[in-house]
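Hi team,

As requested, here is the filled-out complex form for the zinc ion run. I kept the field names the same as last time so the parser does not choke. Let me know if anything looks off before we queue the next batch.

— J.
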Amino acid sequence: MPIKNRFAELQSEITEWRRDIHQNPEILFETHRTSALVAEKLKEFGCDEVVTGIGRTGVVGVIKGKADTGGKVIGLRADMDALPIHETTGLDYASNTDGAMHACGHDGHTAMLLGAAKYLSETRNFDGTVVVIFQPAEEGGGGGREMCEDGMMDRWGIQEVYGMHNWPGRPVGSFAIRPGAFFAATDQFDIVFEGKGGHAAKPHETVDTTVMAAQAVLALQTIAARNADPVDQVVVSVTSFETSSTAFNVIPQTVKLRGTVRTMSRDMRDMAEKRVTEICTGVAATFGGAVEVTYYRGYPVMVNSDDQTDFAARVARSVSGDCDQAPLIMGGEDFAFMLEERPGAYILVGNGDTAAVHHPEYNFNDEAIPAGCSWWAEIVEQRMPAA
Ligand SMILES: [Zn+2]
Ligand SMILES: [Zn+2]
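And here is what came back:
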């Protein structure tokens, strides 16, 4: 069963929605226009229930199949938010908002799931219930987490959840997936070293925080090099080093470090957090200074369930003829919170040879729409086949 004919028919309409969303990007939880558009479309399609305000600006639609003999409920999730990037594509439907841009293709994700919702509302050729989930604030705001915290999974009795992301560099409409850990846990830290500032010509009368913090930057690299099992993945990146003085002749009183930690398992995540604190405390003590470490836990590791991943790959093969093994990705994904609550799977769909996501020249490839929509529809029709 390849691409569904209905999506070839709907492609131009879905493309119009996509470009309209592209032109009107909204950041984090501020997806007011996009959420209203989604809710309006879902009502127009004849969804059995449309609820707004889940996870602040999230939208949920419910579509009942022509039968419901087993009480099965599947959740399908798309993200709606844009990024704080100034678009440079020069497209005739480029962002009309300065400093906001759909540079991660969430415009395409939203349009494709709307397309699938339209088809599923028309045909209802399945035995069970579909819950379409449109979340805000994937790009660092935890909109998926807030939708879960609002009780979405229990309220609609969702039993398994599926997600999809476009992927530049993959042939358009081709799929890739992997079971188990897939996207990294993304944590951040602020570290403030405190010494004793003074004259740069009299270092013996100071406690030099610059030297202290420089030692810490290097020592933090030993978390990956010496603490982690070499077959495990951990990235520790110090991304900011800020001294409290910019003068040539002053040893600064404080140095602030900032950075990110990416890990692929709960154990590695706990280990890295513990070591960041231990190393900084130890370095400060060694040099006679003080330190304050603030560690922020972001998105957890996104883990695909084995059974749902097998099934999702089978569906992808039925749509596109093939499904590749995806690599581990050290980026984060808010869908991780939904996969912590329910079994499910997250798949990549090829965006062709375009700029990378988060690049000011990136654009979602509308040629991926038929494959993406067909995968959504087939997930439902194959997982909950009508008699
Ligand atoms: Zn992104
Ligand atoms: Zn994204």
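Two things worth flagging: The CA atoms of residues 163 and 346 lie 4 Å apart. The chain has a mean pLDDT of 97.

Thanks,
J.
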